[in-house]
Amino acid sequence: MSLPSPFYSAIHTIVVSDLHLADAEPPHPKKPLWKRFKGKDLFIDGTFKLFLEKIQKIVPGPIELIFNGDVFDFDSVMTLPAKPEFSISWLERRRGLAPEEAKSRFKIQVILDAHSTWLESVREFILNGNRVVFNIGNHDMELHWPSVCRDLQNRMNLPEQFQDSVRFTEWFYISNQDTLIEHGNQYDAYCLCSNPIHPLIKKRGKVLMRLPFGNLAGKYMLNGMGLMNPHVDSSFIKDSVFEYMIFFMRYVIRTQPLLLFAWFWSAIATLIVSLQEGFHRALNDPLTVDTRVEGIAQRANSTVPVVWALKEVHAHPAIFSPLKILRELWLDRAILFSLVIFISFEIFATVNVFANISIAWIVIPFLILLPMFIFYARSVESEVSKLQKVAFAMIPFSARIAKVSRVIQGHTHQEIHTQIKGIEYFNTGTWSPAFHDIECTKAYGRKCFAWIKPDLNNPRNRICSLYEWTGTDIVLIPINETDQFYATNSSH
Prior knowledge:
By secondary structure, the chain is of the alpha/beta class. Helices cover about 40% and strands about 15% of the residues. The protein folds into two domains: about 5-210 and about 270-325 and about 385-490, Purple Acid Phosphatase, chain A, domain 2 (4-Layer Sandwich); about 330-380, no CATH class. Helix 6 packs antiparallel against helix 8 (about 260-280).
């Protein structure tokens, strides 16, 4: 009988998520605000290094550090190799490399080169006797490539006796048999990995990672719309037409006047790639599936039945509802508006056959039809908010499957500590370069983390709280603050 893994038990566990480490955007003298949020001066490396140093001073004994998904943002890496050893398509040159193995390995090297301070701080943390778990999210799905994980470990340059202090888990991890830790994207129909047990597909003779629709939208659309920060919805979703007009006149007209054209062709590309890849059959070998699932269970401190059961409560991929995809891309409104223009022209052309009228008369049928378009456009609501409510409803089921009373997630970039049907729920928010403004002067959210530690009243049990790293100190976030936050933002 084999001895239990040293990862099986933990005294102190720290959970952070959504760092979104990527490459640095080079300066654009003529467009200083273009992807300002990716500026090297806004990297979190320095403050994260201070955070790890502070944690080790106040936490006794070895620490289990969980990077709970989206630690790396492969989708936003735009750097291309100077001398590529692989073919690069026209679309990849404009929106980033595809998730093929060799290209994913190139991207992780680019990210680690840009974030050497972060990498060194994690290495020192491990050498001090602590351990690290990388739980895969939707933006770092390319960690599913074993070679990418090996490249990351090799760059840490750990001595042989510390090699086993790093672990990679497919989508969930059970800490000390009391806490289920998962990124949370598996309950989001737009961002889930369709098959985290078998995430690969074969397309045109090439094996690649199947990315979710939400990732493809960010990759092909937001990578080409540099004034819009992908880490904050409010940067590209406004409350009214008036706000869009102000945004266009203040920023877009000088930096990207052809934004509508960029959006349209990028949305079409997203739709085509999503449909092409979404319906592909997952690559799997029936002879090795048992071994694969056993490995997932072992790395997650779990069992095979729990792996299968957790997979069953995942959301159904939105790609199987193309109309929803059209709505999220706003292509349904583009099609309807084009139809209004076409019908208006047809009415004008028909009338012009019987009476020679000015082309200006085309405005009349257009104005008659326009209210119908406006009514439809205003009636369409994003499914994302509804899906978030569904995700919260699934938390008690996941906790019951994992036999825990506590669940910690990330993904939504909204820090939360609350109770959901008797299950203690945490969301650690985001450390990403998220800002309310284009100039990146007003930070969005707080750099939060969950700390699970022994209960002083009952050392056999562990308790958990949500904390904020201010840059110099660690501050407890009262549950009433996040309860209120949850109540007012649970629709997002």
